[in-house]
Request: fold
Amino acid sequence: MIKIENLSVAFDETLAVNQLNLEIYDGEILGIVGESGSGKSVTALSIMGLLSSEATIKGGSIRMGEDWLIKDGLAQDKDHLRKAQGNRMSMVFQEPMTSLNPTQKVGGQVDEVLVLHTHMEAQERYDKVLEAFKSVGLKDVEKVYDSYPHQLSGGMRQRVMIAMAIILKPELLIADEPTTALDVRVQNQIIQVLRNINKEQKTSMLFITHDLNLARRICNRIAVMKDGKLVEIGPTEEVFGNPKEAYTRKLIEAVPSRVKEKEDAPETEEEASVNILEVRDLNVYYQEGSNSLFGQKKKRCVVENATFYLEKGETLGLVGESGCGKTSLCKAILGMNKLVEGDVKHYSVRPQMVFQDPYSSLNPAKTIGWLLQEPLRAAGKLDPTQKMTDADMKAAAYDMLQKIGMPEKYFHRWPSQLSGGQRQRISIGQALITRPGLVIADEPVSALDVTIQAQIMELMQKLQEELQLSYLFISHDINVIYKMSDRIMVMKDGKIVEIGDKEVLFTNPKEEYTKLLFAES
Reply:
């Protein structure tokens, strides 16, 4: 299906892909794994003809069947590529919020694919879009069709992107982190959808992921990349069961597991719990549409009667399906949504949040160094006693770069020059640089490869111990939740259905939904 020969792609003087040779066979699912910046996404964009203007093809060729996409270092013209893009091959991108047009309803955006590539009538196209939405696990599909991207959860936006990619039944589907934003139940649905497409339509797939467990479940072969080069390739079980290269073994060993770690030390009298956050009978609303008779906006309740507490120095994990109200709850706690009822009491200074989508939360017009210093500048304006000199802020930013595992050279780079995982690390650095008492982390490691994921979790735990930080930690990865959390809170349809110690919930959950959620992970 695809043959890549000696492909090299550079950004400035840095080779993002270096002499890559790779084949994707008819009807197979080939997984590409590796750390952020290893060249996975650049390889995919090269195939699709979607490299940015900053990228330079230094040499090599890509062929799809008998059709050349890149030949001897020269890409085909856009008109030639456009015949293949969307029709013969399609791609699911890593960050749906930046891939969907925020000014257009999502149904119309998916319909546009059919307008450009088919001769279907309007009603037939509408039915086809709804069918695609249903196939990727979306509910109330007519409402989704008429929704704007910001009205959908992160997981719902990702499912819309997947529906858009598969609607024309392409020969090749490139999936770049297609389940990053999805909870385990929907993730399983999407994996099954992709398997069905692969089996029934013989669609070849290039599956890019940092989730090695996921790659092992779905892929026929695995290719391991590092620093733009192919390190190892082979049948999935062979690579996972008997890796030949040390780097591959390092990746596999970094995967989080539910192996119980050493027992916590018994609580002493001096370690008596102190609450840093108390939430009681919290209802959270969104305004939508308007009442045509009275001109008043209607309210929709997205979180109902939430009551819980968070202790100083502990991590409370928050799990639930996409759209269940996790992010809405967190925004209300931080005062980002004022349309609430109930009580929220903080006992910390300047709580911070790590957002799910790093690209949309980082100012693209500012350098990484400026972005890391901005929380320090803001803290100084709010409290003059916290004001730092320019030299001290710069030093703190360099120190944070080191802590989040990024070289000093990134201080002067822009968000667009970073991979998805690197941007997420900057978002985490921004939240931690002011040493807040409370950090709400909304999928803080979802965009990270397993080795950096392990480093970031270790860093967050280290800082938590040093500074007595408290985390409200949201993740769809149950293994990550197990590793990070002291207690776990489960949400469904805007309600908290169960809260308890992590060992109790994993070994003896009371609610059927909790049992189902953990069983499917």
Remarks:
- The radius of gyration is 23 Å.
- The first strand starts at residue 2 and ends at 11.
- The longest helix spans residues 184-201.
- The chain has 20 helices and 20 strands.
